[in-house]
Amino acid sequence: MLRSVKPELHMMHADRSGRAPLLLALALLALLTAVAMLTRPLTPIDETRYVSVAWEMWLRGDFLVPYKNGETYSHKPPFLFWTLHAGWALFGVNEWWPRLVMPLFSAFALLSTARLAGRLWPQHAGLGGHAALVLSGTLLWIVFSTSLMFDAMLALWVLLGMHGVLDAAEGRRRGFVLLGLAIGLGVLTKGPVILLNLLPITLLAPWWNPGLAWGRWLGGVMLSILLGAAIALAWAIPAGEAGGEAYRNAIFWGQTADRMVESFAHRRPFWWYLPLLPVLLFPWFVWPGLWRALARERRAGFDRGLRFCLAWMLPVLIAFSFISGKQPHYLLPLFPAFALMSARVLSVGRATRVTMPALLALALAAGLLLVASGRIASLRDEMVALPPFWPGAGLALTALVAGWAGWRGVRPLATLAVLGAATLATVQLAARPALAPQYDIRPLALAIRAVQDEGRPVANIATYHAQYQFLGRLERPLVELRGDEAARWLADHPHGYAVVYLKDRQRFDTLPARHKQAYRGGWAALIDARTAAGSPGYGVE
User: Fold this and answer.
1) Edge-to-edge strands, sheet with 458-461
2) Does 355 score more than 70 pLDDT?
3) Taking a C-beta distance cutoff of 8 angstroms, is the pair 514, 526 a contact?
4) What is the CA radius of gyration of the chain?
5) 404/359 Cα distance (integer angstroms)
């Protein structure tokens, strides 16, 4: 009996400060950032679009109004673009800084999550490091911590707002200032969606923090909203004046209205998120030990910290479920709440086995090994390069070690976090041979730059997302052509060039082109205007 208890007590004492799991969480983030930078290019359409908007602002010397391909860009506020400019001002224009921005914000989010855990449960020493470790090993968090998107940045502002809410509930007026600052920075990052992430927990404050003076509380929240609005308007008013009437209408009303219409135009059912949760929250969601621990806490009665996390997470999840235009990354700001809850309920009770996540990782490893062996006939298409053998073998070894550790009674947080990180790293390494040629569009962007340097105009015969602007360091926009206007432009510019997109491999092989390559499951080619005019009907990208 003493043998089984002493190692467990020693382990609990060893990470009483929480530093070891916090350092492990940051190390996993650094490792996955390196893997992403080695295996993934800046990926069209989203990543290349955002870095191109920042590039065009930089090129113009206009840091107030975002531009995309020569036109004002009202779809996103400028905070992300400003962070790219800050790095370029320090290090010169480069590609590596944009790849590091979101990992840096993710690292600050891990530290903020750890600190929030210490505030919610001061009696549980070291809990913050474990919460950060849960977060760093969760699959969706890993993906968007290493992608040039807005959600990891937004998650940090949500965490800042949660610290403010907690300060205000504990009687510190600065909390409302922090909440207002978080709202303002959130609006400058991704628009008013920050309010959907922050306001429900303030309205549910009497449930997780009984005894509040409700009138004063609502008054403080309203002042926070006004402060956030003032921060956002400090940019929006001068930007609206500088960008013109159309841009002004877009950022003050049109953007919000259009996004509401768009969100209901792409209808997804209410339950759409539910079947995704086992994947998004891998490996924690599929680990029975977590749900047993949560059920145990439910029977004992949720404490203040757990209620805080539920008030943060559940109303927002329900609200996003009612919005038809769902995307997995919309949920990212809720993941720190899940990590905090998980670390808290697992802080009591004995270690449990990690068999199920290990078995699923082992099944994925077996699938990767099967693909690498070329045994799956459907993957023998000439477009698809088979992955190397070793990533699957490495994941299989990691899964076996995780399973063995669980059977030996090792505390599972570190094991599962490493397993989650290893799973994503393996998938990226295995997919690189097939996906890199499809998504690395730098060669085409440089070919466009060479044509523009000759003084020739270039058109894009499809919707253009500015995907070539930064990678080619283009200084002139491309002409975006659709339908009948393409034929007219090609006839009027016989010395120009056009980027066209095809799905037919045979047509692609016989097409005379200045440059052509695989592109997102099809092909793209840079061809002269006469060739394009003589062979109309190219596929629209």
Assistant:
1) 479-481, 458-461, 497-502, 522-528, 515-519
2) no
3) yes
4) 26
5) 11
Cβ burial 391-422 (10 Å sphere, 16+ → b, else e): bbebbbebbeebbebbeeebbbbbbbbbbbbb
| 3-state SS, residue 189 | helix
Tokens describing residue 389: 């053998």
Per residue in 104-159, pLDDT (tens digit) is 999 999 999 999 999 999 988 889 999 999 999 898 999 899 999 999 999 999 99
Q: Residue 509 CB: number of other CB atoms within 10 A?
A: 10
| pTM of the entire predicted model | 0.87
- Which tokens is 463 given? 């919707």
The pair phi, psi for residue 450, each rounded to 5°, is -65, -40
At CA 316, angle to CA 291 and CA 147, rounded to 5? 85
- For residue 3, what pLDDT is reported? 36
E strands present in 181-303: none
Q: Count other C-beta atoms under 10 Å from residue 283's C-beta.
A: 29
Q: 112: which 2 tokens?
A: 């903020």
pLDDT tens digits for 431-464?
787 788 889 999 999 999 999 999 999 999 989 9
| Total Cβ atoms within 10 A of residue 212 | 16
Beta bridge partners of 524: 501, 517
CA separation for the pair 187, 234 (Å, rounded): 12
Find out whether 345 and 359 touch, Cβ atoms under 8 Å.
Answer: no
| Closest-CA residue to 448 (of 141, 175, 136, 52) | 52
What is residue 394's three-state secondary structure? helix
> Residue 303 phi/psi, 5° resolution?
-80, 180
**In the structure encoding, which two tokens stand for residue 63, read together?**
């840091």
Count CA within 13 A, CB hemisphere, residue 316: 24
2, two tokens: 């003493």
CB-based contacts of 465: which residues, under 8 Å, 6+ apart? 44, 45, 48, 49
**Block residue for tokens 């003050």:** 252
What is the distance between the alpha carbons of residues 83 and 80, in angstroms, rounded to a whole number?
5
The CA distance from 412 to 398, in Å, is 14
For residue 45, cis peptide bond before it (omega within 30 degrees of 0): yes
